[in-house]
Amino acid sequence: MLEIKEVNDKKQWTNFLSKKEIIYYPLFQSWNWGEVQKALGFSIIRIGLFDNDKLVAVCLIIDIIAKRGHYLHLRHGPVILDKNIVYINAIVNYVKKIAKEKKAKFIRMSPLWEKKIVDIKYLKNNGCIDAPIYNMDAEYCWVLDISKSEKELLSDMRKSHRYLIRKSLKMHIEISKTNDVKAVDDFLLLYKDLSDRKHFVPHRGIREEVMFFGQDNEALLLLASWNNEIAGGAVIDFVGKMAIYHHGATLSRYRDIPLSYIIQWQAILEAKKRGMKIYNFWGIAPLNQPNHPWQGHTLFKMGFGGEVCEFVHAQDIPLSLDYWRSWIIEKITKKLKGY
User: Fold this and answer.
1) Is 62 buried (19+), middle (13-18) or exposed (0-12) by CB count in 10 A?
2) pLDDT tens-digit series, residues 93-128
3) What is the mean pLDDT of residues 160-186?
4) 131/331 Cα distance (integer angstroms)
5) What is the dihedral angle through the alpha carbons of 17, 22, 23, 26, rounded to the nearest 10 degrees?
6) Could you identify which of 39, 249, 299, 320 might form a hypothetical disulfide with 190, taking C-beta atoms 3.0 to 4.6 angstroms apart as the criterion?
7) Is domain 141-310 annotated with CATH 3.40.630.30?
8) CATH, range 2-137+311-336
């Protein structure tokens, strides 16, 4: 018998997401990400699907009320161990019911299902259409197998990356590692400088991310100092068996100092120390789009070695004609940004 009910037990939720069948950890379905969203003022619901009292799927639902529309967001969800069509239908139908009760205009879902091995026709059969956005939640990312030795990892890198890492080690760039929330202020100064230069809207919730994930030793802030000044930094999340390079920034006046290279190398070594199997560099540009706005940091990430991993594109379930207003706005925004 199938039953869907709210899950309020952090241990039960976390243990489910830690199962060996889940290779790519769904960061945005984690318990702590739900806590981050609540701290930012969003309403959330955590549901679990039980088959004869056995938990077989979970889904964190975030209620988003934005200028472009009201919708329920299932980032990296739902998480289903067995892509059983009955399980998928049960969850989607349940979320549709919640959405209608809340008068949401649509549902957006972006499960971490590898595109090369998943047939998403069962999503289409549930009324899903491709969302009019680009690379939602790092659906197209660069991942590195870090089960190899340090020597092998260095050998597999681009020659220039290997040289810059070795150069940075000789320069004695100071690297500090902390999950102290007070240190986030230093990173946010770097991040603001980057967002001003690159003209993008900064992500909200970095402080809360470090705080909640840090409490479980699942987040680390790496800060690089040069000339007695904090000049670069990165926020790394350690979830399941995967480390994620989630945020990064360096001061432009130190562009000739290999800060980003040593930060990434230290993050990779920390991930190995923690027993992680995969280092996820997060989103990159499609390899067939050389003029893509993300091309610069894509080449940087690829230089460390690794491979592309592509998940299914974010899917929308329209529930109202008002959805198409949001669709048009996002479609135009995507085009203006060059995606």
Assistant:
1) buried
2) 999 999 999 999 999 999 999 988 777 777 788 789
3) 95
4) 9
5) -50
6) 249
7) yes
8) 3.40.630.30
Say yes or no: do domains 2-137+311-336 and 141-310 share a fold: yes
Backbone angles phi, psi at 264, to 5 degrees: -65, -40
Residues 268 and 153 sit within 8 Å (Cβ to Cβ): yes
Boundaries of every domain in the chain: 2-137+311-336, 141-310
Position 105 scores a pLDDT of 96
Is the bond into 258 cis (omega within 30 degrees of 0)?
A: no
CA 206 – CA 130 distance, rounded (Å): 28
Place of tokens 């050998």: 155
Residue 232's closest CA among 202, 282, 266? 266
d(CA 35, CA 18): 18
Q: What pLDDT, on the 0 to 100 scale, is given for residue 260?
A: 96
pLDDT interval class at 296 (50, 70, 90): confident
Give residue for tokens 């995507």.
Answer: 334
pTM: 0.94
- What distance lies between CA 242 and its chain's CA centroid? 11
